[in-house]
Automatic annotation (TrEMBL):
Residues 259-415 form the Glycosyl transferase family domain. PANTHER family: GLYCOSYLTRANSFERASE WBBK-RELATED. It comes from Streptomyces anandii. This is Glycosyltransferase family 4 protein. Pfam families: Glyco_transf_4 (PF13439), Glycos_transf_1 (PF00534). The keyword Transferase applies. The keyword NADP does not apply. CDD domains: GT4_PimA-like (cd03801). Keywords: Glycosyltransferase, Transferase. Residues 448-485 are annotated as: Disordered. Its EC number is 2.4.-.-. It is an enzyme of class 2 (transferase). The lineage of its organism: Bacteria, Bacillati, Actinomycetota, Actinomycetes, Kitasatosporales. InterPro entries: Glyco_trans_1, Glyco_trans_4-like_N. Residues 36-245 form the Glycosyltransferase subfamily 4-like N-terminal domain.
């Protein structure tokens, strides 16, 4: 059913906000729901949008998103949810990352561009996914009321994509780039980091031309203004949150004495794991049974691996990867303390999820973490980023004080329930969708009240920029991408 046809349905068939149900295309160039904030965002937001009564089609590339589809009427879905696979060449898949595709795998010039960028040390996926998504969306003009891009920020999404565009920027990747450059040792490593992050120049150019940007925190909003040059009046904060049904306390799960849990990849400097490893060495002088479970990728070399060896912590640090939701929740519940040691976060889902289980939290004040975790001594213990001594002091304090752990755990859970849930995130996102639709259609509030939207002569939703033609547009994008990448 097309978006136009769906508008002719029963006037009583309304979404939760009283407006007509929307047909939403939700784009994600990486959809892993178990690692990385973007995949988690798409999984939970799409589910809650469907529960509000909207029709959501997630369009993604590898690793494909895992969606919480409606398999039981009791799950509370009012709309629908589906996945459309828009495959890349999957050049970074395991166990053969940076692979060279066979000749039979090439389908068009976008595939050739993807491989060429990878061969020359760049990261092609935001650009190449945006080009494939543009082609896909234009072929389906009129089927969607709104297109929601999840931080692709590629050239292909400029201009006419067949429906009004709303874009989520979790935080500017330029922040990651700066932190990785600061951590890089040697000229060759710095050149490699600069080349890998060359796509951020494209993202900055695209971001400045977007009509409607969503972000997940006030801190990220300011970073988007400062780093990407987006006008303040185009950026709207819609907090995300935890799945509070899944991440919940369970008194029947025994706590493991001395267990500290964190979510982090060892090879990502901004996650601050090396400082937590150093802090653990200090903590074990007072609490010999203290040990760390890391949900994330183990690095075989680099600063974290060196720190583990230097402090003799091989038996006190465990990495787990690829665990299920239930296993993750059980792990967090079993910990005496959760820790977020990041130097910077645009929101920090691990902080919200740990708090939702009632597990007491030690967190840094990097980026938006205080916006999520709350005040020091009230809902968490807060320490400066990059300070192993302060982390150790906070961990020691919590491990040695059961009453404090109980108080902070309960207060943290209440904070998440009142501020940071996926249901609230979906409601705020839909409000921005309706504003974007109304603005694109050139009317004041008709989309908000659910009335019929006028269509452009070619049957699509009118936009400010009309496409001059596929060949010309593709060539222009290709020329600019070569200069950038």
């Amino acid at each position: 059913m097309t978006a136009e046809a769906s508008r002719t349905g029963s006037p009583t068939d309304l979404a939760a906000d009283g407006g007509r149900p929307l047909d939403i295309a939700l784009l994600t160039y990486k959809g892993n729901p178990f690692c990385g904030g973007q995949g988690v965002y798409v999984r939970h937001l799409s589910r809650e949008l469907a529960r509000l009564g909207h029709r959501v089609e997630v369009i993604g590339a590898q690793p494909y998103p895992v969606l919480d589809e409606d398999e039981d009427a009791d799950e509370g879905y009012r709309g629908s949810l589906r996945l459309t696979e828009l495959p890349s060449l999957d050049l970074y898949r395991q166990p053969d990352p940076f692979r060279t595709p066979g000749r039979e795998e090439y389908r068009d010039w976008v595939d050739a561009l993807e491989v060429a960028t990878m061969w020359t040390g760049g990261f092609p996926e935001p650009l190449t996914f945006s080009l494939r998504a543009r082609r896909h969306l234009r072929a389906r003009r009129g089927e969607f009321d709104v297109v929601h891009d999840n931080q692709t920020l590629g050239y292909g999404l400029l201009g006419d994509v067949g429906a009004p565009l709303v874009t989520t920027i979790h935080h500017p990747i330029t922040v990651d780039r700066k932190l990785e450059l600061d951590a890089a040792e040697g000229l060759l490593r710095r050149l490699s980091v600069r080349r890998w992050y060359a796509f951020t120049r494209m993202q900055k150019r695209v971001a400045r031309r977007l009509p409607s940007v969503l972000t997940v925190s006030g801190t990220s909003r300011q970073e988007i203004v400062d780093h990407l040059g987006v006008r303040e009046d185009r950026i709207h904060v819609v907090h995300i949150g935890a799945d509070t049904d899944l991440f919940s306390p369970d008194a029947s799960v025994p706590q493991v004495p001395g267990r500290i849990v964190t979510t982090s990849s060892a090879d990502v400097p901004l996650k601050g794991l090396v400082f937590l490893v150093e802090a653990l060495a200090k903590v074990r002088t007072e609490h010999p049974g203290a040990h760390l479970v890391v949900v994330g990728k183990r690095a075989e070399d680099g600063p974290v691996a060196q720190a583990i060896e230097r402090y003799g912590l091989q038996g006190a640090v465990e990495f787990v990867k690829g665990i299920s939701d239930a296993e993750l929740v059980g792990l967090v519940r079993s910990a005496e303390v959760a820790c977020v040691p990041s130097l910077y976060e645009g929101f920090s889902l691990p902080a919200a999820e740990a708090m939702a289980t009632g597990t007491p939290l030690v967190a840094t004040t990097g980026g938006a973490i205080p916006e999520v975790a709350g005040r020091d001594g009230e809902t968490c213990l807060a320490v400066p980023p990059g300070d192993a001594g302060a982390l150790a002091a906070g961990l020691n304090r919590l491990l040695g004080d059961a009453e404090l752990r109980t108080r902070l755990g309960a207060a943290g859970r209440e904070r998440v329930l009142s501020r940071f849930t996926w249901a609230r995130a979906a409601e705020g996102t839909v409000a921005r969708y309706r504003e974007a639709i109304a603005r694109s259609a050139g009317v004041d509030r008709s989309a908000v009240t659910g009335t019929h939207l006028p269509l452009s002569p070619n049957g699509g939703t009118p936009t400010a920029v009309q496409d001059p033609g596929r060949s010309a547009a593709s060539e222009a994008v290709y020329s600019e991408s070569r200069a950038t990448c």
